[in-house]
Specification:
The structure holds two protein chains of two kinds. Chain A is mainly α. Chain A has six helices and four strands. Chain B is α+β, with helices and mostly antiparallel strands. In chain B, the strands form six sheets. Chain B has a five-stranded mixed sheet. In chain B, strands 6, 7, 10, 11 and 12 form a five-stranded antiparallel sheet that branches. The N terminus of chain B is likely disordered. The chains are: A mainly alpha, B alpha+beta. Chains A and B meet through strand 1, helix 2, helix 5 and strand 4 of A and strand 4, strand 5, helix 5, strand 13 and strand 14 of B.
Chain lengths: 176, 391
């Protein structure tokens, strides 16, 4: 009887886990501070906004050195952000934001977490919205006067939105 | 009588020792952390793609290695934003999202949990891409060097998810690293529950910084990019995040313009490493053991065949035990070389029956724009002078 009481106490002290006492509960504010996941439907996007014109200036400052003035890329190292529409089914397929990327949220997320290349993660949310708007404008996806925010960005339909299929494995057949 | 013979033998040895020159300088003291012999110089080839330090890739010199384990110092690397400096005492892994209780684990916490040690290969899905494009590599390192194999130690992801309590609607886990670009990939829940690990150990010691020190995800048989290094967050979700590395990159463009997405599994593959490109068979015609490595993300390698006549006839190679799932396997086959020009190659079959295809068969199925997951049969040309080159 004493043993049963002791076990019940142990469970209540450490919660109903298989490995009691290992790891600590993460409070909501800790999770909020760390969570930067942006989903394709816009969940996770921070509140903020930016427009094409603001983005033009920010792009010149932070992006043009590598991606070039109009997003055409530089050398082989620095990828083009524009062009390639209609090339995906050809021998000279050119994968860019405009021709290939399926979600506008991915553009925002890529800039927010990994750009500028030598100083990633330093842009403010509003700046990221503005640069995203400008890059999409370069691709003819967002109009010149337009702005983007956490609500409108996920509504942007990318030209290659339906260009991806779940991989079936294996996909190659060898003859013996 | 036996004792006397042994005594005479020992005396002979002692005499021999006193006659040979005693090394006057000890090559190395008993250093706290050992170094290889000064005469051993094999190294990775690093390609830094930009002016940024540590961004780019380095390849493993497969043709110089024995067995199946890659020395940690020679493990290939591919980084997108350099190698971060991380204090292991402060590093934690946060598990949150669709869980009953968000949890945070220190490295000390992880070491208290049920632990496993497994041998698995890691391969960049871009490995061999140049072969597809017809720019064949002159050595096994150049053609296949974005491939390594280690003994990894850590905790099953399943244990951590159980500890936090996964909600029934959870289908994906977004893994994120603490490098400068906070690289993130979405991993199917089924893989997390099957054999995914968070590892802190590599070949018996802590992970190397270039391999994610102090903690990385390890997804056996999946493309290496998804085994997120410097792991500090697992976000349990209903959907994939559609991150940069699972949309813009690591998707496989097909001839009709559609792209295969989430093509995680590394296909069945093999390459002869000895004799292989850049090497020379010394001493002319005669016996040469052919040796190489085979691997598959599908599970275990079942069979490796060798051809020494350009693919006309094939014979089975011996597989060195133990044959482990989603690990490199060493194969060996005897060959009596007649001293004439020859083309040698290997092809692997896995336990599901999948046979490694030729380059032509891959091109037929995927076209030329699918730059990832190349796994074609690799021929080497042996010339009459013993030199081995790419075909």
């Amino acid at each position: 009887m004493f043993r049963i009481v002791f076990l019940l106490c142990a469970v209540s002290a450490f919660g109903q886990t298989k490995y009691p006492g290992v790891g600590k509960a993460a409070p909501a504010e800790r999770v909020k501070a760390a969570d930067m996941t942006v989903m394709a439907d816009g969940r996770g996007l921070p509140v903020g906004r930016g427009n094409v014109e603001t983005g033009r200036g920010l792009y010149k400052t932070h992006c043009a050195e590598c991606h070039n003035e109009a997003g055409e890329g530089r050398d082989k190292q620095w990828p083009a952000l524009v062009g390639g529409t209609g090339t995906l089914a050809t021998k000279s397929a050119k994968k860019t934001v405009g021709s290939y990327w399926p979600y506008a949220t991915t553009v925002w997320d890529t800039i927010a977490r990994s750009m500028p290349y030598n100083n990633p993660g330093t842009l403010k949310s509003d700046e990221v919205y503005a640069i995203t708007a400008f890059v999409l404008h370069l691709n003819g996806i967002v109009a010149a006067g337009q702005g983007l925010d956490e609500k409108s960005l996920p509504q942007v339909k990318m030209p290659n939105r339906d260009g991806f299929i779940p991989a079936v494995h294996p996909d190659v057949k060898a003859k013996r | 009588m036996a004792d006397r013979r042994a005594f005479l033998g020992l005396a002979a040895v002692l005499t021999a020792c006193t006659k040979s020159k005693t090394p006057s300088v000890v090559e190395q003291s008993m250093a706290p952390y050992g170094e290889r012999a000064a005469t051993e110089t094999i190294a990775r080839t690093a390609t830094e793609r930009t002016a940024s330090v540590g961004v780019g890739s380095s390849t493993t010199p497969l043709q110089e290695l024995h067995g199946v384990i890659t020395p940690s110092a020679l493990h290939f690397e591919r980084h997108h934003a350099g190698i971060p400096k991380i204090d292991p005492a402060k590093h934690t892994l946060l598990v949150h999202g669709l869980v009953e209780q968000p949890m945070e684990f220190s490295l000390d916490d992880l070491k208290r949990l049920p632990t496993v040690t497994r041998t698995h290969f890691l391969e960049c899905s871009g490995n061999g891409g140049a072969e597809l494009r017809g720019i064949a590599g002159g050595t096994a390192e150049k053609s296949h060097g974005l491939l390594s194999c280690s003994e990894w130690t850590g905790v099953p992801v399943k244990v951590l998810l159980e500890q936090a309590g996964v909600k029934p609607e959870a289908k994906w886990v977004v893994a994120e690293g603490a490098d400068a670009c906070r690289m993130a990939r979405s991993i199917p829940m089924a893989k997390c529950m099957e054999d995914a690990l968070v590892v802190y150990g590599q070949n018996g010691e802590a992970l190397r910084p270039g391999q994610g020190y102090p903690l990385r995800l390890l997804l056996p048989g999946f493309e290496e990019n998804a085994s997120v290094k410097w792991l500090d967050r697992l976000h349990v979700t209903e959907e994939p995040a559609q991150s940069n590395q699972e949309t813009a990159h690591y998707t496989d463009l097909l001839p009709d313009g559609k792209a295969r997405q989430f093509s995680f599994v590394m296909d069945t593959n093999s390459v002869i490493t000895r004799p292989s490109g850049g090497q020379k068979i010394a001493g002319g015609a005669g016996f040469v053991e052919i040796s190489g490595i085979a691997w598959t993300g599908n599970g275990k390698i079942k069979r490796v065949e060798i051809s020494t006549d350009g693919g006309k006839t094939w014979v089975d190679a011996a597989l060195e035990e133990p044959v482990l799932s989603r690990s490199l396997v060493r194969f060996r086959a005897p060959w009596v070389w007649d001293g004439k020009d020859a083309v040698i190659q290997s092809r692997a079959t896995d336990e599901t029956g999948y046979l490694q295809p030729t380059r032509d068969e891959i091109v037929e199925a995927r076209g030329m724009n699918s730059q990832y997951h190349y796994h074609g049969v690799k021929p080497w040309a042996v010339k009459a002078d013993g030199s081995v080159t790419n075909v």
